[in-house]
Amino acid sequence: MVKYKKFTMPLILILGIILIGLFGKALSAKSAAVKDNRTEVVLWHEMGGPAEKSLEKIVTGFNKSQKKYVVVPKYQGSYDAAIQKILQTHNTNTSPAVFQAFDISAAQMMHSGFITPVQEFIDKDNFDVSKISPVARAFYSNKGKQQSLPFNTSQPVLYYNASLLKKYGITPPPVSPSYDDITRVAKAIYEKSDHKVKGMTVQIYGWLLEQAMANAGVSLTNNNDGHTGFPTKATITNPASKEFFEWIRENQKAGDFMDYGSGAMSGTNQTTGFLNGKVGIYIQSSASMSQLNKKNKNELGITYFPHPNGKKANGVAIGGAALWISNDKPKDVQQGAFEFIKYTLKPEVQAQWQKDTGYLALNKDSQNTSILKSLYKKHPEAKVPSQQLQEAVPNNFNSGILMEGMQKTRQIEQFAMEEIYNGGDIHRALKNADKKIDDNLTTTNRANGRSTK
Amino acid sequence: MLKTSTTDVVPEKKVEANSDRKFKLTAKDKYYASIFVGPSLFLLGLFVFYPMFRTLYISLFLTNSFGNTTLFVGLDNYVKLISSPDFVASMWVTVVYVVGVTFFTIAMGLLLANLASQKLPGIAIFRTLYSVTMGVSVSVAAIFWLFIFNPSAGFFTLLTKMLHLPTVNWLTSPTNAMWAIIITTVWMHLGFVFLVFLGAIESVPTTLYEAADVEGVSSRYQFFHITLPMISPTLFFVSTITIIGSFKSFGLIDLITKGGPTNATNMLVYRIYNDAFFGGNYAKSSAEAIILAIIIAFFTYLQFKFLEKKVNY
User: Hey, how many other C-beta atoms are within 10 angstroms of the C-beta on A384?
Assistant: First the structure.
């Protein structure tokens, strides 16, 4: 008996491990058995709050509309955090079949080799994409090949407090205003309110700088923002971005500009400031509109994103996110993923989505649905972002920046904006930003074995 | 009686006999040692040592978009970091933050503990109040302070408006943001530090104070010459954990400033997280992690070498 005693301890350990293994296996087998014979398609998304509820409605609608597939939505937290999760779980059994990834990760996803370009399914199914907004499609395509299809799409727009303008007798800005048009209104608000209401704010947010450059028709990197090859050099230091910052500086000097900073709450603080009538004009995603409409006591005014003086607007790029199909799943699961994507782009689904969330309906036919018609009747200004989206003609400047490491680039842009807002030299701040992005690009290209010329 | 005493003695003798021999592990000892130490060594190896060496390994390479090592670059990542003004600024910011937090936490903690150690009616209320921040989680504290710092409707803004003072931009100006973070962290740490100090002060023998009272010594003199020396082990402990804790501070920075404005609160730990999970540059952030580990080890060493000698046990 004593002889065997020394084996007891290891034996117990080994038995324990086997038991846990078996038990775990039985558990997972059990959960697999619960499924019916529909093919499961796991969807990873980053829609929180009311948008999540609305997305779940779409998923339920899809699951009811057919008998072959069942989509299982799983919330993954913020856009930013989701990217690394998607990349790091690829080829494991936790990875999604279809996932939502935001605009600036497009290049990363495209070059990852982890996705099946939706173009393959579009060709196979003869799916007609001509109804889907061309600017939005261009954002997620490379050299004419559609990589993913846009799902939730927003446009940067300018919001103003229309009641305030009426109160002080200020002429509202035109639908497509220039920087000077906005300066005029902002200064007038500040002066006529006896310096009680600030005229305008522009959030320290890299997206807005990118949009200012897109709208002016200049690119952020060489190789046409990455549309004709891997970017190797940043070109933020250009007359268009300088004009953008000089516009902000002019308003800072006049005293009508409010700086909400870049911290965790800056977006919320800015919205609160606008709703409480502390600041008259601000620029934000069109997706904020449903929230603004719900809580606003004042009349809401909306215009296009402002453009440089004396020039025609080039049109802005879209924001938001797209649905991508992962290539580590069997063919039928991938087909199911595409069926779901097709469903999300139906006119009625997109119209309801716009009404619920403020993201813009991408299907042209959505505009004729009764859902959007009644929305526009109630809020005529809600039409403006959709018009901006429809008017834009896609070119390399307003089709997004196909560069890996855009998340870091955003932070570098924000750093430059902070420097400028705190009184730093515009040229120097932009030059520094270019240098930092170049450094990152060099490292990225070296690490991925590309030439750095 | 006698019997028990003899049985008590016997094993002692055995032990003595054992210790006379040179200390040597028998096979049986080794077997038992491996059973007792083995599991924890295995777990430590899996979750501490392996990641540590893996981090060191990754830091000598470049990583591609998926975080895989691709190109060996030796110490290139480190050289790049140390020569980048951004990273050096981050190190400075971290040092300022750590020194600020440690100083104010200890000073405030001592002050409050000393006040609360008075034997007065109703003092228990204050003791509870001073230690209440111990029960507040980081996210709750962050939201709470964000409301206070809010530029349009925050408490500080309303206060300055009421007193007709110029408004302070707490989170948009780089210097103020650092103060905002320090204040918040000190507030968070204070409850625990207060409680530890209070316990230490309470355990100082009252006879010492009575003797001092007889001599007619001022209470300030008593604090510096009786209380402080007597609680020096606690002081040492608190300063060590506060320094290490504030080097590793993450939650408040992420929830309040996100490292901004202009990197004014971009501490090392936040930078590591940011470069890895936003930038996707795992090599760079591994190198930063190694540098941070070295810095913390250095500070801990300094403390044990110099401070511990001064401690009056």
Answer: 21
pLDDT digits (tens, 9 = 90+) for A253-305: 999 999 888 776 788 888 888 998 889 999 999 988 877 877 788 899 999 99
Residues of B in contact with A421 (CB under 8 A): 172
Record the tokens describing residue A20, joined without a space.
Answer: 């846990």
Fold of B78-310: MetI-like fold (1.10.3720)
Q: Which residues of B have a CB under 8 Å from any CB of A?
A: 31, 35, 39, 62-67, 70-71, 86, 142, 146, 150-153, 169, 171-174, 177, 254-258, 260-263, 274-281, 283-284
Average pLDDT over residues A410-417: 92
The CATH code of the domain that includes A142 is 3.40.190.10
Largest Cα–Cα separation, chain A: 100
For residue A263, the SS3 value is coil
In this prediction, residue B312 has a pLDDT band, given cuts at 50, 70 and 90, of: low
Which three-class secondary structure string do you get for A372-429? HHHHHHHCHHHHHHHHHHHHCCCCHHHCCCCCCCHHHHHHHHHHHHHHHHCCCCHHHH
Taking only the tens place, the pLDDT of each residue in B235-282 is 888 988 899 889 988 999 988 888 878 888 999 999 999 888 888 889
Confidence of residue A420 (pLDDT cuts 50, 70, 90): very high
Q: What ipTM, to 2 d.p.? A: 0.75
Residues of chain B contacting A84 with CB distance shorter than 8 Å: 67, 276-277, 280
What is the pLDDT, as a whole number, of residue A96? 95
CA B236 – CA B192 distance, rounded (Å): 15
Residue A204 CB-density burial (10 A; 0-12 exposed, 13-18 middle, 19+ buried): buried
State whether B150 and A265 contact (CB < 8 Å). yes
For chain B, the domains span: 78-310
Taking chain A, what is the end-to-end CA distance rounded to the nearest angstrom? 75
List, in sequence order, every beta strand (DSSP E) within A214-368: 279-285, 300-303, 319-325
Mean pLDDT of B97-126: 91
- Token representation of residue A360: 């813009």
3-state secondary structure of A232: coil
Q: Which residue has the tokens 């070296």?
A: A446
Q: How far is CA B263 from CA A407, A429, A442, B94, in A?
A: 16, 14, 23, 11
Instruction: Tell me if B154 sits within 8 A of B70, measured CB to CB.
Output: no
Q: Are residue A191 and residue A265 in the same domain, yes or no? A: yes
CA-based nearest distance A408→chain B, Å: 5
Q: Between chains, do A447 and B171 touch, taking CB under 8 Å as contact? A: no
Q: Quote the tokens at residue A80.
A: 């930013």
Flag whether A292 is in a domain: yes
SS3 (DSSP) at B21: coil
Which of A350, A381, A412 delimits the end of a domain?
A: A381
